[in-house]
């Protein structure tokens, strides 16, 4: 089993319910168990976009799915929950980003883990800290160091 962490976000069509539905779908994935989920947090959209606030969380999965198979499964859940990809950082019913896949570092056309933007996103780091406060990333960085260096952002626990 590999421990993977997935960031969840939604700002359309009852975002908290979207996350709850996504968590149930994650737990139903083959060869995968939902090992935990952080609290839900509310945060403003990135880059000053004019759209509703997001609800975010991080889930821990124990899985035997290969990284790209897990990515395919995550994108399938997004699609089933009405995700449409029109605008980068646009409003969405559901966003599922694989942020870590065990201690692996992967970079290919479809997937980069650790997630390329996680160090700048408090809405990822704070929920991740809830689940794994002593986490060391595959490149040796400590999660606590990333949190200390993360740009200030507005984030509220729900």
Topology:
Layout: E1 2-10, H1 15-27, E2 32-37, E3 41-43, E4 54-63, H2 67-80, E5 95-101, E6 106-107, E7 112-113, H3 122-131, H4 143-149, E8 156-157
Antiparallel strand pairs: 1-4, 1-5, 2-4, 3-4, 3-8, 6-7
Detailed description of the structure:
By secondary structure, the protein is α+β, with helices and mostly antiparallel strands. It has one domain (2-157): 7,8-Dihydro-6-hydroxymethylpterin-pyrophosphokinase HPPK (Alpha-Beta Plaits). It has four helices and eight strands, in the order E-H-E-E-E-H-E-E-E-H-H-E. The strands form two sheets. Strands 1, 2, 3, 4, 5 and 8 form a six-stranded antiparallel β-sheet that branches. A hairpin with a 4-residue loop joins strand 6 and strand 7. Helix 3 packs antiparallel against helix 4. The termini are far apart.
Rg estimate, integer Å: 14 Å
Q: Which consecutive residue ranges, at least 5 long each, have pLDDT under 50?
A: none
Mean pLDDT: 93
Number of strands: 8
According to CATH, what is the class?
Answer: Alpha Beta
What is the CATH topology? Answer: Alpha-Beta Plaits
Question: In percent terms, what proportion of residues is strand?
Answer: 25-35%
Percent helix: 25-40%
């Amino acid at each position: 089993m590999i421990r993977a962490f997935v960031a969840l976000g939604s700002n359309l069509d009852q975002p908290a319910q979207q996350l709850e539905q996504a968590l149930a779908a994650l737990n139903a994935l083959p060869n995968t168990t939902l090992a935990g989920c952080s609290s839900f947090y509310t945060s403003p959209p990135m880059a000053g976009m004019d759209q509703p606030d997001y609800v975010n969380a991080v889930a821990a999965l124990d899985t035997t799915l290969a990284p790209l198979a897990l990515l395919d499964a995550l994108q399938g859940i997004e699609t089933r929950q009405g995700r449409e990809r029109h605008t980068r950082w646009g409003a969405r019913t559901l966003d599922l980003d694989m942020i870590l896949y065990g201690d692996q570092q992967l970079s290919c056309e479809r997937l980069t883990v650790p997630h390329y933007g996680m160090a700048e996103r408090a809405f990822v780091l704070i929920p991740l800290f809830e689940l794994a406060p002593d986490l060391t990333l595959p490149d040796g960085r400590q999660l606590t160091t990333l949190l200390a260096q993360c740009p200030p952002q507005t984030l509220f626990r729900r």
